[in-house]
Automatic annotation (TrEMBL):
Top-level taxon of origin: Bacteria
Domain TonB-dependent receptor plug: 56-154
Gene3D superfamilies in UniProt: TonB-dependent receptor, beta-barrel domain (2.40.170.20), TonB-dependent receptor, plug domain (2.170.130.10)
Family statement drawn from the similarity comment of this UniProt entry: Belongs to the TonB-dependent receptor family.
Record PROSITE patterns: TONB_DEPENDENT_REC_3
Protein name: TonB-dependent hemoglobin/transferrin/lactoferrin family receptor
Domain TonB-dependent receptor-like beta-barrel as annotated: residue spans: 258-720
InterPro entries assigned to the protein according to its UniProt record, in alphabetical order: Beta-barrel_TonB, Beta-barrel_TonB_sf, Plug_dom, Plug_dom_sf, TonB-dep_rcpt-like, TonB_haem/Hb_rcpt, TonB_Hb/transfer/lactofer_rcpt
Amino acid sequence: MNMNSRGTCAVRPMAVALALAFGAPVFAAQQAPVVVAALPAVTVFGESISAANVGRSYLKSEDVERQQADNMAALLDTLPGVDLTGTSRPGGQSLNIWGFNKVQDVKVIVDGVPKGFEKYRQGSVFIEPELIKQLEVNKGPHTSLYGNGGFGGVVTVETKDAKDMLRAGANVGAFLKYARHSNNHENDTTASVYARSADGRFDGLAFVTQRKSDDLRKPDGALFRFSALDAPSGLAKLNIRLTPEQLLTVSAMRSRSTGWGPFAAFGEDTPAPSAGDIKKYGSDEAWRRKAIYRDQQDDTYAAKWRFTPRDNPLLNVTASFGHSKTRQYDQRSATATPSSFLGSLGNASWASYKDRLAELRNESLFSSGALEHVLSVGLQWHGNQRDTLMYYPEAKALKDPAYNYGYFQPYYMPAGEQKTTGLYLQDAVTRGALTLTAALRYDHVASQGVPNLAPRYNSPLPEAGHDYRAVTHQGWSPRLGVFWQTSSNMALFADLSNTWRAPTIDELYSVEYYKDAKASSSKPGTSRALEVERITAARVGAMLSGKGWFAPNDNAQLRVTLFQNRVHDSISRRLGELVPPGTKPTGVLSNYRNLPGMRTEGLELESFYNAPRFFAHASLALQYGARRGSQRNPWGLDEPVSSIAPDKLVLGAGWHFPEQGMSAGWQGKFLGAQEKVLPSDSVYYLAPSKAYGLHSLFASWQGRGGMWRDVSARLTVDNLLNRDYRPYLSEGVTGVGRNFKLSVSKSF
């Protein structure tokens, strides 16, 4: 890869970070020994090297609390290969892993429940960080536990439990927290109560939090319009130990937000109203005419039963059920033009996305001669249902039955349902230091569209191709992994996977209008003939973990990963060159088509160092991607993959002061320029971005006794130097200015 233009900003800070990580501990080792309280350590892949930790990165509770982030995507943006897509507006964030940024390519699982929200030009992650105990990212399509998609990876979120909050030996407790953010005058309040029975069979938690703020400010002091926040969230969780070998966990989580915002929360600044509009409507209403009022609610319900008999290693059974629903209601101002929003969900819209999950899995431990087996088998059913409706009060549409008098499903965001049934078998076989993991998964996906209420998008004429009938896809996904622990401190690994994803409801059933042969779109039809999108993915690397490097009780971790993903028959809208050059269209043209495919590849480096008084971390991510042909012309020249993130270097260092109960440190995030972009006339064009670096400071204090017992305070300063920056994956929208975040909490 070319390091001259994009990598230069990363190399020198990397050397400084490594010098800090492995030099400062030498100084720490020379100090007089002290009695050190237990302090949380940062890790790459857990406490030990094992085949189960390959490809996984973690953010634990301390990492989450240290950042004081407003949304989950911002938390994960510090990990190599994981990048925030979108803006800082409420509900305006999605995730990009290894160049894959579609919702179906990055699976998000909360307490075992899948979360799928694919609404046009909106974010997809709405999880309140205060409720999170731990985040795990498994990059690439290398897990058999989840089927049909997930090419970029899987993000699993575990919410807090009563046992995480209770004092040692206590059966009842409470927690209060207040936080203040300077940039947008944000006020956050949190309260929680939790308890367990005296015999330990029952424990439960109730957790509520409220975020409220004004608009954010950019580095130049200008308002980031429509970024104000009003977002209450809550969590209730109950654990019941039915027997010493059985645990039942039930939970319910809700997040909500309301307020004015642009139609596309995902990107673009809202253009300022004209002087004439301001004079006519007043400043506030002139701005609102360019926005929508959005009421959003996200619910997650989960139940999980675990059966782990102590004397039967063949049984470790988990049965899960989950229900998730995200709905949005958008309403434009009463003074907004009634006829200008056909392509942006009209003057009012309703969207509801539901996910239901039922799963049964078992893990067996047994031996066959010199071989040790961990055999996993599972059966899953996943239903995803989406309901959509818009109101388009254009004068002619209100009188026209072809528009169903103004009420119909958006033709680019149809309603429908997908039901996936999956079965997987995985055997991890170990002999000595070598583990071979073979897995096979089968998925059957049934998709059903919902005919549009508007005959304009639901013509019975065969030449329209408006066919909403059901379609099915099925196939196998084999995976193979090798893990060789060359010593107690070092391991090598390699994984090869081949899997697929079925077309989404959008891709199958989106249409264009059809009136007659002369007055219709050139590609009006649904896309039921789409082939599945396939990927062949490989990753190789090494992990190193050791203790006692520079001081007693220190430890260090390092992981290097090389990856490559080859996508075949990628699914995209039919744009530009509709059919092969020199040929004429025959029959109905579908709205979506399969393209030749693309390739993404890269390098990741993750390293951490922990000592009693010092800690440091450094990570580096380099990515590259190329598409065969282009999205507008599959028979033309190759083009870059527009969703490839710039090179990213994240450095951090800090110190513990155990006698005072304090920790403090610095983190820097350095992004290279992204110059390999699509032509400016492309629908998927993202403007080139310049290199930039962002610096943050953090400090925490924990009261030791007396009136200060269980009192905590945290200070985080984001964008310390108030740097003006425009993230590439945020479509060039200006970033957020300096922000002081202070929180104080008390446990009882």
